[in-house]
Amino acid sequence: MTQGLERLSLNQKTTNSWSVAEAVDGCVRAGIPAIGLWREPVQAVGVAAAAKLVRDAGLRVSSLCRGGFLTASDPDERTAAVADNRLAIDEAAELGAPCLVLVVGGLPAGSKDLAGARQRVADAVAELVPYAASRGVRLALEPLHPMYCADRAVLSTLTQALDLALTFPDVGVAVDTFHLWWDPNVAAEIARAGERILTYQVCDFLVPMPADNLLARGMMGDGVIDFAPMTAAVAATGYAGDVEVEIFNADVWAADPSRVVSTMCERYLALVAPYLA
Amino acid sequence: MTQGLERLSLNQKTTNSWSVAEAVDGCVRAGIPAIGLWREPVQAVGVAAAAKLVRDAGLRVSSLCRGGFLTASDPDERTAAVADNRLAIDEAAELGAPCLVLVVGGLPAGSKDLAGARQRVADAVAELVPYAASRGVRLALEPLHPMYCADRAVLSTLTQALDLALTFPDVGVAVDTFHLWWDPNVAAEIARAGERILTYQVCDFLVPMPADNLLARGMMGDGVIDFAPMTAAVAATGYAGDVEVEIFNADVWAADPSRVVSTMCERYLALVAPYLA
């Protein structure tokens, strides 16, 4: 492990073209001790094989991304979504992931009933909580930037995600700088979240945004976010977990993944790690 | 005036290619009793001439867009911005606009100090308040969608804009469906705003967003917003002002403005007006 990288985790999405084996190898070569896995590449190799790859390399799993998409109003779609989330919980357990990140879903096609969608998320999470507890996996509700409210996640603020998480004894939240940096209350809400913070994810917010707003995440230092205040606020809660770098970005994905990883380590050391102490 | 349009106002930006004279004429032809003016087209014809055009046509001015851009840290830029806002206040007074909408500005180029930018907005508004009061113009702080936090407005929620407005006796807020529809607290914050609501602006939020996110505003009915709850919440405060339709959208701007206006009237009558009662 490289000095200063003790809490860094490579979220697989940052090196989107790499298989689990390649990403594990990339972490080992870079001295990164943890990895945030995604279901699709894990399923491509098989959950047991992915778990073995990570374990044999001596890496921690920081999270599994992602469950969620729980807003369907159609009963069959809803049943399928809940079943798929149970499967994701099973996968997280087998991988040794401490939490399953939930991107809760947007408005169903054609619907404008935002309050209804939010209520269905609360209901579905309630349904999943006992199963997650039985498998030793914690659910991490992820508030997404409000620009994704309609198509990705009707949980739009940390306040809202935390209010829902706190209605259960053991549900937590995912804190991601990209989604939350603009929120005037974010430092106070991070403090309120305290031990409910299950994962801390960092990347930058690019201005101007790329044409596809799903790919507006950038390498730390390439956008407008000051990582000091949010990172210090997370550290002040006593959060001792990993810091995942999760970047959706066409240019990052087109670059050599090994170079992306080395840039990620440099930027993390310069812009994030100093505020974790 | 056409039945049902008694409170509709054409924000000039919706018919972006029209001069003040053309927009005034378009309102008269469509039976729209009010207009939301923009500084650039007003200055193009001259403030006195624009005021006369509106007055002679028997239209109300619902607002003047826009002042703001008050986040500069450079002293000279800041002085220039405050002076320009004084000029905008003069223009609003001469036009008979009840309020000047302030889009407060984003991060200065190269800066990541969001808290500092927000403080400079508060300081600049404090500086402008006495002048606005002396001219009989109210300042309307407009919270913009969080996706514009870095480049347009560091006021990102109604809560935040209202908290700032309430530190002064006579400053208000602009409530715009596009910017606020995602906010889980928006109905409660509209209620809290009460008489501080100086303008209510409507347009839709398009999904997927166009490549240029500044042009993501759509005609009511073309996006994901349910106008009922926000409109009813605004009406419940006793708001008796005009309802402006303000659309930034390349397709709308490329269309025949007269057709845009007639579509706007139809959509307003179907999707907004019923909830004003």
UniProtKB/TrEMBL annotation, chains A, B:
Sorted keywords for this record are: Isomerase
The reply on keyword Magnesium is no
Record domain Xylose isomerase-like TIM barrel: where: 28-251
- Please give the Gene Ontology molecular function terms for this protein: isomerase activity
Q: Which SUPFAM superfamilies match?
A: Xylose isomerase-like (SSF51658)
Q: Which InterPro entries match?
A: IolE/XylAMocC-like, Xyl_isomerase-like_sf, Xyl_isomerase-like_TIM-brl
List the Pfam families.
AP_endonuc_2
From the Swiss-Prot or TrEMBL record, give the protein name. Sugar phosphate isomerase/epimerase family protein
Whose protein is this, by species? Tenggerimyces flavus
